[in-house]
# Entry
Amino acid sequence: MIGRATINHVDRIGPSQVRLESAAARYDSSVVDALEVAAAVSGLATLWQGDSRELLARLPDASVDLICTDPPYNLGTYSTGNIEMSWRKAFNNDVAAWDQLPFDPAAWLDEFRRVLKPTGTLFAFTSYNLLGRWHEVFDPAFDTFQFVVWHKTNPPPKLRRAGFLNSCELIVACWDAGHTWNFTRQRDMHNFIEAPICAGRERVKDPVHPTQKPLRVLRQLIEWGSRPGDLVLDPFMGVGSTGVAALELGRRFVGIELEPAYADASRRRLAAMDAAGSGADKAAGPFGDAG
# Structure
């Protein structure tokens, strides 16, 4: 279980559940049913529903090996809305309301640095409009600032052929000297991932998250920047894809999500992994303490 001296708001209520207090009543009721992943993977993951600006303060200093996250892109002002079609459902070209709220990477720098180990790595999905701001703030704070390109092999179409397909997304990558890299060959060291967008059975249908990332991309990032048993943090968890990939690869996971519906979808997805188990040490909690 989690170290009680550090995080004491999680109370065991059974072998496959915990009760989790929300960050504040304005986000949800006083107590939210959430999880610390059940049974076979008990103690390997903790999910919090609330504002990451508040909940990150509950993480111990230098406790995280990898931050892998997908914060808002602020592309709302560029969106032209969904493309309505007479012969099929509309092409999704819209953005969620939360993406239209101002997001400034600088607001998260201090807490990211505090919780990340000196040997840790940061991966953060972003877009062209915010890459400069990420560089301005995070480049001076880390020894190295680079980016990874995710090339989507099946991007949404541009029916009017008015410009390039939105076939690439950017991923900020930051680290200090001595951090973890799991490269074995030169060809593994390209800052380029090619994979289709999330679709089919992997796509969460209820609720639909417009920017759900594919497990193939997340697995690559987690394999690059962490080792089995390491702790992965996602403070913009969405529907929990980073957590699924982390547990599949034998890592531990802490996720934070503001939207209750997304947080609940994450709980269901990670709880469903119970039957399959995971490769991480089941005796260790998210912060390395005994379960």
In short: Residues 1-42 have pLDDT under 50 and may be disordered. Residues 96 and 210 are 7 Å apart (CA to CA). Residues 260-272 form the longest helix (13 residues). The chain has one domain: 10-76+94-272.
